[in-house]
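Reviewer 2 asked us to include a model.

Predict the structure of this chain.
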Amino acid sequence: MALTQDLLEVCKWSSEWLLPLNIAKCRVLYIGNANPQHTYLIDGVDMCKSDSHVDLGVLVTSTLSWSEHVLSTIRKANKMVYLLGRAFARSHISVISKLYKSYVRPVLEFVNYIWSPILQRDIELLESVQRRATRIPFGRIWPQYADRLAMMGLPTLSNRRKRGDLILTFRALKDPQSPIRHLFPLNTLSRTRGHCFKLVKDKFRSTVRQHFISNRVFETWNALPASIVEADTVTNFKIKFDNYNG
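Predicted model (structure tokens):
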């Protein structure tokens, strides 16, 4: 097996360079219901099995469900909202807006093109953090959520995710050296009106694949006017899309 051979090479390298592996911290994560779950060894010791693991700040589970990561993200963001509320209660709207954009929203949006929520429950939980943050400058009596967003110049997090997905798609398609270019296959046989960067929708047999980024952006991206998709820079794409989207 390729993975077993890779582990042997890692063990060999660590031995040659006198950098012993901490076996207690090594984990194996089996993904998928049909996974045969082979046993993997490091220096003859079985690796511990795990149902989830944090990799580069993203909590990956064996089912590829992002609900656990969403909950973890919400906990971190809510702590920050609490601190902002304590330190800047009743501050001017513009101040809270800047603080939220600087300290809270980046937590909620960290690489979210990978773990973009599927379940309505997760979507609403993420949005609830922004709802709570936008109440800070108003004290105990606050306007409706839509009005607070307008006052603070904020879109919903759902709209932000859609915009971010489109920007990532634009970057991937316009940069011939992009390492993720292959994730967005173009429909070269399309004869319909519109731009020349229309995507092909991936076939899927699972919910995870159904909501993969290339499928998430398929309809919205293909429906964009050519004047937006054919922008010469990312900045111009953002400006044109924002004007188009109102």
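The longest strand covers residues 52-55. The first helix runs from residue 2 to 16. We have added this to the supplementary material.
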